[in-house]
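Good morning,

Both structures are done.
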Amino acid sequence: MYKTILVPVENRETDETILRHIRPLAKLTNAKLMLVHVADGWAARNYQHLKLRESEEMQRDQEYLTGLEAQLKAEGFEVSSVLAMGEPATEIIKLARTQPVELIAMSTHGHRFISDLLYGSTADKVRHQVDVPVLLLKVQK
């Protein structure tokens, strides 16, 4: 059914919503987890183009991913992680198209009104542009 589940995380406490839900599903299907965090600050968005050094944001994000990966491995999951840089929806879509992923599981924050109307949400962009199922869970506070 699901061999690899792509799980975008934000380096926030709200990540626990999707992680709490995806653990039993991954165990049930014996799926690998591929964590992705997209650093989207100025340095991250211009890292390749301007050949910049890693910013503190990017270093913190990598530490978060490494720690989360280690935690999930200690729980018995097969896990990999990717620190992408740029626009979150674009990078998630790119991974879904280039990696063997059968499901994307991500949390949403609900509507942010004007911002969503002008730019669309990351979740909406992802779900409309990938060919794999997308599981969306609203963040539980």
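Second structure follows.
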Amino acid sequence: MVRLSAGHFCRAFKRSLGVAPVAYIAGRRVACAQHLMLATDEPLSQIALACGFYDQAHLTRVFRRYAGTSPHDWRRRHRDDRAPVAAPRPRADRQELAFA
């Protein structure tokens, strides 16, 4: 699609955004899960699938790496602070990348 080798694309991506493509996608999926955990009462298994994780165990492993706690504990701790959650807006200085 962009006519670059995988290695060259990964280096250019990391130079542009500061993180590798795999880490960027994982971070976006964790942010999606956090948003859904606060905005809905869906079970974590459904949230995991909606955000692109294979299953709830995969969500838990990746979430713990990024947030330092399990999704269940994070949800319970942040539920008290719950306020209306707006959808994240793209920053004006950087276009959002869409991954399928």
